[in-house]
Design a protein that fits this description.
Elements lengths: L4 E4 L3 H13 L3 E7 L6 H5 L2 E6 L10 H11 L3 E3 L9 H9 L3 E2 L4 H8 L1 H10 L7 E2 L6 H11 L3 E5 L8 E4 L5 H16 L4 E5 L5 E9 L5 E13 L2 E7 L6 H17 L4 E10 L4 E8 L6 H8 L3 H9 L16 E8 L1 E2 L5 E2 L2 E2 L2 E3 L5 E4 L6 E2 L6 E9 L2 H13 L2 E3 L5 H9 L1 H4 L8 H4 L11 H15 L6 H4 L14 E6 L6 E6 L2 E5 L5 E10 L2 E6 L2 E11 L4 E7 L2 E9 H9 L8 E3 L4 E6 L6 E2 L4 E7 L2 E6 L4 E6 L6 E2 L4 E7 L4
Parallel strand pairs: 1-2, 1-4, 2-3, 4-5
Antiparallel strand pairs: 6-9, 7-8, 7-9, 10-11, 10-13, 11-12, 12-15, 13-14, 15-22, 16-17, 18-21, 19-23, 20-22, 24-25, 24-31, 25-26, 26-27, 27-28, 28-29, 29-30, 30-31, 32-39, 33-35, 33-38, 34-37, 35-36, 37-39
Helix pairs in contact: 4-5, 12-13
Protein name: Acetyl/propionyl-CoA carboxylase subuit alpha
Cofactor: biotin
Keywords: ATP-binding, Biotin, Ligase, Nucleotide-binding
Length: about 675
């Protein structure tokens, strides 16, 4: 069981997290990476690094033989799978052990048993853990499934036995829809997991997702490290996690924790694992959902309230060490919240965002587990989650407040993130009152969510920050201003002009740092005394009252972007100087109405048109896969297809031309 070098069969933030755990115990780390991750931080920070294949996960992070060969070549004695990829693959765990290496996780048999939702529920029932009523039999015939569906009654779920993350799951509210739901769930389960088996389960509306962290050693000891609530979800993907689970009756909490320990003991579980439940507040009952036989994405909130390093104990347990604490030694302190930070645009149906990170300025004094830094490239090959923000406070109210404060101080450029959306969730009164459940998002934002835009004062501050970046306070404008500055009417000092990229009229700036005045297109005026931009801090006085805002000014190809801290959160405002405005007009702007281009790098999944087809504006022409999501790309105008530049299976770059149309107005 002894080893001194650990190969980490993963990437991004979790690879860096495991590297920290290795360093804590004096162990060397080996990073394996794909061609797409060659310049990633986790590669540079490892003690050893090996390229194992191409960007596609099947060529690298899912390539078992390449990973084992890297372990042999570097002399690694153990393999940590992280989460995702091969972390819950029993065959991989067995192959690691067959190669004479230590698998840092549970026994392969435990992974296989809990990996089958049908077997897992049977094991839970045997251990006295409540499960939802349903059908989990071996007879997978249509007739039997429909018979059981009728007996179960609606609403119920059809779920893939080998599934997870909402894949292979269908909700049936009308028995007449059952045949189609069963068929489509089977097809998706076969495609995603290679196993078409499904089971039926009663649907619990307005249920919460509560889970219990367990830790077991190789000497028969199993402890629980408390519970978490992960009820705020979108499409069965968690958004915000917290520990402990709030608004949970203590008697129910105690039973959940004890049941999780019983189940782990019954299957001889070792390492870190999570028993997940559905909790029905209306009935006051909980039901076993599944067991994750790996480290969870949300493990930091448990570490925050217990002070126990889960990765360290995974490594110690894999070396054969007994747990050095008893259940009574596990104490809980305060409340912790984790926010998943993803490269996506929630205002545009969570459209994936890709590109180079040009600004990465996280808040201080909070935990940030991240796989990127300034200069990192976010590609389309992997999951959109790039970081996790974790806060800890004495109580839940304080944790929410601290999380919002941290988001308000987080500035990122080059790639759009979901931070403003996560802030809106945290600030929502239903989240504070804990009225949410796993299907609650449509109720929180019934008309959809839109990002707040900068108000007139924030727009003025953004223009001032850019002005002070270009003309430092105290500098003579005649020494520093170029030809794109104009002189104002008589008796006024020189004026500078800045255009919001969404408007035609400029913001006019007069004066200097001692008294800087911004005039908006609508005539509103703001004057700031002693205006200064020092580092990333915009400061001054308005009517004698001092203010200070975080402000980052970053150059983009055709404009400037100002990231400004406002009362509504961090905003990003795009501004052009007069010079930028002239260049934009000279090039005719961007965008071609009759050309469909790729909004991001990705793989072409479908081309739904042929040459000569007549299409309407909004018809889907191409389906693009990026960050595990399928994006339907619509026709920009009505017309006839004249050119097709791509085919299914092609990998295309961002802004690459895909389909050329002859607009209807021409035909």
């Amino acid at each position: 069981m002894s080893f001194t070098r650990v190969l980490i069969a993963n990437r991004g933030e979790i690879a860096r997290r495991i590297q920290r755990g290795c360093r804590k115990l004096g162990l060397e780390s080996v990073a394996v990476f794909s061609d797409a991750d060659r310049d990633a931080p986790f590669v540079a920070e490892a003690d050893h690094a090996v390229c194992i294949g191409g960007a596609a996960p099947s060529d690298s992070y899912l390539n078992v033989e390449a990973i084992l060969e890297a372990a042999r070549a570097t002399g690694a004695g153990a393999v940590h799978p992280g989460y995702g990829f091969l972390s819950e693959n029993a065959g991989f765990a067995a192959a690691v052990e067959a190669a004479g290496l230590v698998f840092i996780g549970p026994e392969p048999d435990a992974i296989a048993r809990m990996g089958s939702k049908i077997e897992a529920k049977a094991a839970a029932e045997a251990a006295g853990v409540p499960v939802l009523p349903g059908y989990r039999g071996e007879d997978q015939s249509d007739a039997r499934l429909l018979q059981e569906a009728e007996a179960l009654g609606t609403p119920f779920l059809v779920k893939a036995s080998a599934g997870g993350g909402g894949r292979g799951m269908r909700l049936v509210s009308d028995l007449g829809d059952a045949p189609e739901a069963i068929a489509s769930a089977r097809a998706e389960a076969q495609s995603a997991f290679g196993d078409p088996a499904v089971f039926l389960e009663r649907y619990a509306p307005r249920a919460r997702h509560v889970e219990v962290q367990v830790l077991g050693d190789t000497h028969g000891t199993v402890l629980h490290l408390g519970d978490r609530d992960c009820s705020l979800q979108r499409n069965h993907q968690k958004l915000i996690e917290e520990a402990p689970a709030a608004d949970l009756p203590e008697a129910v909490r105690d039973r959940m924790r004890a049941a999780a320990v019983r189940l782990a003991q019954a299957i001889g579980y070792r390492s870190a694992g999570t028993v997940e439940y559905l909790y029905d507040p209306g009935r006051g009952e909980y039901y076993f959902l599944e067991m994750n036989t790996r480290l969870q994405v949300e493990h930091p909130v448990t570490e925050a309230i217990t002070g126990i390093d889960l990765v360290e104990w995974q490594l110690r347990i894999a070396r054969g060490e007994p747990l050095a604490l008893t259940q009574g030694d596990v104490q809980f302190d305060g409340h912790a919240i984790e926010i998943r930070i993803a490269a996506e645009n929630p205002a545009e149906n969570f459209h994936p965002e890709t590109g180079e990170i040009t600004l990465w300025a996280p808040p201080a004094d909070v935990r940030l587990d991240t796989g990127v830094e300034c200069g990192s490239v976010v590609g389309h090959h992997y999951d959109s989650m790039i970081a996790k923000l974790i806060v800890h406070a004495p109580d839940r109210t304080g944790a929410i407040r601290r999380a919002i404060t941290a988001i308000d101080a987080f500035a990122v450029g080059g790639v759009g993130l979901n931070l403003a959306y996560q802030r809106a969730l945290l600030a929502h009164p239903d989240f504070a009152a804990f009225r949410h459940h796993t299907s609650y998002l449509p109720e929180m934002f019934p008309g959809g969510w839109t990002e707040s835009s900068a108000d007139h004062r924030d727009m003025a501050f953004a223009a001032m920050a850019l002005h002070l970046r270009l003309v430092p306070a105290g500098a003579s404008p005649w020494e520093s201003l170029g030809s794109w500055r104009l002189t104002a009417p008589a008796r006024q000092s020189g004026a500078a002009f800045y255009w919001d990229t969404t408007k035609d009229e400029p913001i006019r700036m007069y004066g200097s740092g001692s008294g800087l005045t911004a005039i908006q297109p609508d005539g509103q005026t703001i004057t700031v005394e002693s205006a200064a931009l020092t580092g990333c801090r915009l400061s001054g006085r308005i009517d004698g009252v001092p203010f200070s805002r975080i402000a980052y000014v970053v150059r983009a190809p055709s404009h400037w972007r100002v990231h400004l801290q406002t009362p509504a959160g961090m905003t990003a405002t795009d501004l052009r100087t007069l010079e930028d405005q002239h260049l934009q007009r000279a090039t005719g702007g961007s965008g071609v109405a009759d050309l469909l281009s790729a909004p991001m790098p990705g793989a072409v999944a479908e081309v739904r048109v042929a040459l000569g087809d007549r299409v309407k504006a909004g018809d889907t022409l191409v389906v693009l896969e990026a960050m595990k999501l399928l994006q339907s790309l619509p026709a920009p105008v009505a017309g006839v297809v004249t050119e097709i530049y791509c085919a299914p299976g092609d990998t295309v770059a961002g802004h690459a031309p895909l389909i050329k149309l002859d607009p209807e107005e021409n035909t």
